[in-house]
Amino acid sequence: MNQWIEIAEQEFVPVYHRYPVVLERGEGVFLYNIYGKKYLDFGSGIGVCALGYHDMAYTNSLKNQIDKLLHTSNLFYNVPAIQAAKQFNEAANMEKVFFTNSGTEAIEGAIKIAKKYHYDKYNNHFGEIIAMHRSFHGRTMGALSITGKDAYRNPFAPTLPYIKFAEFNDLESVKKQITTNTCAICLETVQGEGGIYPVSKDFIQGIRKLCDEKGILMILDEIQCGMGRSGRMFAYQNFGVTPDIVVSAKALGCGIPVGAIGTRGIASKVFKPGDHGTTYGSNPLAAAAIVAVFEAYQKYDILNHVNKVAIYLDHQLEDLARKKKVIKQIRGLGLMKGIELFDAANHYIEKLQELGIIVIPSGNNVIRLLPPLVIKEEHVDMLIQALKRIL
Ligand SMILES: Cc1ncc(COP(=O)(O)O)c(C=O)c1O
């Protein structure tokens, strides 16, 4: 394993602190390294592998599509993409969708819709977007520009102009940033990289009301918290609101790189032919993955399953927090949980790895739990036992 790691460190651009584990295969909710060491996975590749690993129906759908047709371009139609669009729009309460290759690319498209919406309305380029402090929306220049963390943005300045930041879950702070040029407000329904902070009901409903009153587009980034992780297909469905634009990725493809920009109402009428595009988005293989994901969610009744296991996980974590003084707070929604510690998290994450459990950090002192959505109570017990030992 060390030899592979040495080669990797020589060959890759060094933008990651990787854990010293070379993974080889997965089965169910378990991953195996190249020596066959088994890990219970509570990270799902940062919220991607919602179906776990080697789900037969999902895998066979991909294999069948590979044998039929891999790529067409968007100059032609293909059936998997049409099916995926219909399923996505239904699940998200959207009218029109644009498929992308990643989360950050979907955010770029959402920013473009907001800017063009303003341009069409006022014939100027001064449309302002309000984003949230502590947010994360991706690494490309537009997404970075609305990411509320200075350390990510500053080395790449100047980022996009006309971006303002407000405090998450503080409606007054958002109101203070609104001007006649505000064209969009963008937030994660549950902040992921920022430390697992769910939106409050008052805040998200307040944002919806503000946007309706002032003709502002409401953009929700559900790249990490969407696709069933919250116990609803999209996390905003827990709060009785629907955004004008929803951005999805990660578990939408369960391992095949995809993203989506869902739009409704005025937001779905902004882009005209030539305004946007992609070579690979809506590719038949990527689309077949999306179709297989929606089918698997139905087959496994994923939403009910998530709700049941999440209640169990909540109880176990609350009990743990009562016993372990190092735990500062437990936060989250559904199967997206943060264990905030009074201490740096990485040491504990490495200890868990030694015990055969994968969890991931969020910021410096939060252990982030993003398990495959198919985990069972027995797997929660395994995690809690290990946490009891190492905390
Ligand atoms: C909330 C959120 N938005 C955007 C992104 C960027 O997605 P991607 O890494 O697919 O570009 C991420 C990735 O972690 C995310 O969690």
TrEMBL record:
NCBIfam families: argD, PRK01278.1
Protein name (Swiss-Prot/TrEMBL): Aspartate aminotransferase family protein
Keywords, ordered alphabetically: Amino-acid biosynthesis, Aminotransferase, Pyridoxal phosphate, Transferase
Protein source organism: Anaerotignum lactatifermentans
Pfam families associated with the record: Aminotran_3
Pathways per UniProt: Amino-acid biosynthesis
Family: Belongs to the class-III pyridoxal-phosphate-dependent aminotransferase family.
Example GO biological process: L-arginine biosynthetic process
GO molecular function, one term: transaminase activity
Superkingdom of the organism of origin: Bacteria
Cofactor(s) in the UniProt record: pyridoxal 5'-phosphate
